[in-house]
């Protein structure tokens, strides 16, 4: 368990955060200026808090009560920045082993770096450079890996190239990760735990699927980005139509594309703005996904939108409708209705392993 309980004043800005995170990927999410980078810099030892405590398991990195403040080089933390910061005069091999060679063969395999070892950084793509930076950080044998918006400088195709490697890193390497991002799709694909910062404070914290599916979280992540995350298994393929059928506790979903292999676990983000609600079973629709659900929350905002929490089997979904629609349909907690999801509403960036 990683414990963070710190306070730090930076001019007029006050960082005051408290949370605990288990192993896996803990996403630090929030708008620009919410304190994300200041938080990870404090964990890394690059920014000294005014008060508080930081610990990774039994290893105490900072404790104002005992005046303990380990310097960065003693914290056993790997840090991957937005830019890869590779040594331009060194080969990939030498960059990787600059700080150590812990579990080198496995790191090279997980990140797919074997064919790049003799290359120079100038000849790498942006995604390849970030994978090398990841490998270098891991070969230092860190007890915690910090990643500060590592994909922010990459275009969509390069992001699509590197995300599967980070997923594999999450699933096959024991090192816990703090992953800073303002991209909900990245967070939904990668995170196990989500910490949402707002003006220097923790506004929400918990399992990523739980936090993103809560109506009260919608203003924090943005109404167009809000949506639920569910874990499914590939149950079938409609080869003639180029579709894949996914099973989860609330029923079955059909999505475009031939995804993975039968039985494989797939994580899917369903944007709230793409969920349509109906009080009766719809007929004659082009939409392929119609799920029976029960309303768990109805949150009226200040504007014209209403966030509606839904329960499908053992999973939570989230819908965003207009205030006028919510009132006309008399939406209420406990009401049994139908959620309609177009297959094409879930894009490739919303599907992860």
From TrEMBL:
Keyword annotations of the record: ATP-binding, Cell inner membrane, Cell membrane, Membrane, Molybdenum, Nucleotide-binding, Translocase, Transport
A UniProt-annotated Pfam family: TOBE
Transmembrane helix in keyword set: no
GO molecular function: ABC-type transporter activity; ATP binding; ATP hydrolysis activity; molybdate ion transmembrane transporter activity
Domain annotation ABC transporter: ranges: 1-224
GO cellular component, one term: membrane
Protein known as: Molybdenum ABC transporter ATP-binding protein
Species of origin: Yoonia algicola
Gene: modC
């Amino acid at each position: 368990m990683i414990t963070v309980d710190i306070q730090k004043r930076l001019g007029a800005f006050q960082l005051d955060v408290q949370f605990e995170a288990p192993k896996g990927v803990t996403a630090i999410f929030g708008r620009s200026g919410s304190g994300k980078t200041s938080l990870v810099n404090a964990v890394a030892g690059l920014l000294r808090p005014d008060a508080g405590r930081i610990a990774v398991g039994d290893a105490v990195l900072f404790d104002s009560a005992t005046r303990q403040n380990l310097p960065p080089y003693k914290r056993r933390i790997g840090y991957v920045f937005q830019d890869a910061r590779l040594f331009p005069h060194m080969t990939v091999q030498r960059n990787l082993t600059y700080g150590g060679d812990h579990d080198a063969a496995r790191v090279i395999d997980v990140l797919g770096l074997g064919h790049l070892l003799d290359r120079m950084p100038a000849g790498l793509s942006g995604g390849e450079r970030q994978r090398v930076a990841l490998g270098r950080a891991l070969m230092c044998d860190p007890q915690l890996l910090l990643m500060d918006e590592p994909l922010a400088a990459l275009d969509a195709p390069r992001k699509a190239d590197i995300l599967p490697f980070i997923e594999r890193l999450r699933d096959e390497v024991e090192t816990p990760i703090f992953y800073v991002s303002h991209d909900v799709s990245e967070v939904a694909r990668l995170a196990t735990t989500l910490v949402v910062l707002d003006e220097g404070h923790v506004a929400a914290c918990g399992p990523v699927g739980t936090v993103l599916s809560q109506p009260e979280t919608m203003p924090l992540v943005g109404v167009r980005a809000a949506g639920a995350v569910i874990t499914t298994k590939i149950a079938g393929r409609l080869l003639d139509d180029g579709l894949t059928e996914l099973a989860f506790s609330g029923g079955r979903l059909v999505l475009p594309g031939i995804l993975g292999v039968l039985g494989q676990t797939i994580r899917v983000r369903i944007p709230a703005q793409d969920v349509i609600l109906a009080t009766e079973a719809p007929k004659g629709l082009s939409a392929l996904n119609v799920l029976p659900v029960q309303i768990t929350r109805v949150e009226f905002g200040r504007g014209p939108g209403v966030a509606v929490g839904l329960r499908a089997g053992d999973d939570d979904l989230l819908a965003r409708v207009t205030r006028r629609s919510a009132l006309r349909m008399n939406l209420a907690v406990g009401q049994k209705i139908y959620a309609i999801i177009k297959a094409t509403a879930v894009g490739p960036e919303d599907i992860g392993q």
